[in-house]
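ok so I'm stuck.
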Amino acid sequence: MASVTLPTKRATGGNRRIFIGIGVIIIAIIAALILTRPQSASTQTTSTTTSVASGNIVASVDGNGTVTAAQSVDLTFQSSGSITQVLVQEGDQVTAGQTLAQLDTRNLELQIVSAQAAFDSAKTKLTQTQEGNVQPADITAQKAAIASAQAQLRSAQAQLVALKNPNAGTISSAEATVRQAILDLQAQRDNSSASKTKAEQDLQKSTASLTQAQSKYATAKSDWDFVNETGQDPTNPESKDSTGKITKNKLSETQRQQYYDTFIQAEAALHSAEASVQQAQVTYDNARQTEANNIQQAESKLANAQVQLTALKNPSKTDIAQKQASVDQAKASLDQAEANLAKLTATGTATDVEIQLSSVTQSEQTLKQAQLALEQATIKAPFDGVVTAVNIVPGSSASSATAAISMLDRSTLHVDLKLSENDVTKVSLNQPVKLTIDALKDWSSQGTVSYIAPAAESSNDVVTYAVRVSFPDTDTRVKVGMTANLSITTAKKDTVLLIPNTALLPKGAGHAVKILGADGKTTEVEVQTGLTDGSNTEITSGLKAGDKVVTNPSTTSTPSGGPPFGGG
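replied:
not stuck anymore, here's the structure
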């Protein structure tokens, strides 16, 4: 466009108005030219490029979850009673098997003693049923009865023979037998009476010992009950000073234990004395029975000897018949005595044995329950760990409804997270995992995948899979319950071709990129991709190192005719 030259002469008032009008006209012409100028323009593309280069790439699956201990437990007392000891406090490190708390076990110990006695008694009865329920004295007495029956049989047989064939020697022998029978009877009376008297005296002594044991037991039990209820000395429960002030005499733990030991010893002595009385009574009863049997046998022997002597001196058919009957009776007595011995030593029937076996089993279970109750009176650490809560104090009552002590095992911590179907297919056991916690800016740790759920969980139509990541506890700042961020390394490649993800364009089911040529023009090329880490992607084919690819393209418009004006 041509420029306009203005006059250089100073304008007067009228000329000034002319110049102003000319200027307005020129501006209007210029504006019209601008508005009517063709708006043809070319679109130019401004592109950002990067070079394809080789490098390392790590693919990962990310997630988060809560830090959880390897195991935790709330410990309770399974037995009832009063708590006597609490040996730990919150924060203590404990080892497996370490005693943490203890109940008063004295009553439980007494229950074990009683259950053990019942178990031993049941075993003894089973042995008696299996081997014969008989005392040695009973067997001895029955054998003596057999010997006596045998002697009576021999005597009856001899008398019968003598009666059938009497002679002077036989009569003399019969007379001697009568005299010996008289002496035997007197000796039997004397010996049996002495044995019975001694057994009776032993019974009286045992009874007196039992009376003393009962008295000592009553005193010991009364003292222990008083100590257990009041804690005072039963022999001197109170003291009075010079001013008349009365003070209760409290016992120390050692003194309490002494009273308790005295009570247990008195109880044991009482049981022993009772057993001694029972044994002495059996011995006395046997002595009485033996005296009666022996005297009866001696008297019978004397009577038989006298009858035989009379029969020898005046034999008759009737006497012979009677002697034969005596022989038969003596034989029957011998048979009966032998049968009694066999019955006495016979074992119990199969049913009797089964009953006693059941009794042994039941008493054994009672003993085991008592032993278990004693074991349950102590809380022990089930594993190495740290005490997180102590909810009991000495003197309180045990309750199975409330946790007495709580523990954590921090030997191995873990985080549970949930992954989608697409992510869980990339995860496998023992893959390395990087963990970070937002609350601990300078903390990180390495863990591994320790568990992958074989089945899905569905919530609100969202399907996920549980995955557990375990990592060692190496920093006390990491607390159970903190939220951890996890990056699971699913794959890793070194020295591969990489491009930014922003350079990838969708191409059907695959991808393409734009390559910038030396002439400044771009060319679209299909590529094959491999791993991606979210920012960069591996290129397996289609590109080579050094190729320039377009990233983040943008477009701007510039008029094709250049600036609107040609000059100033």
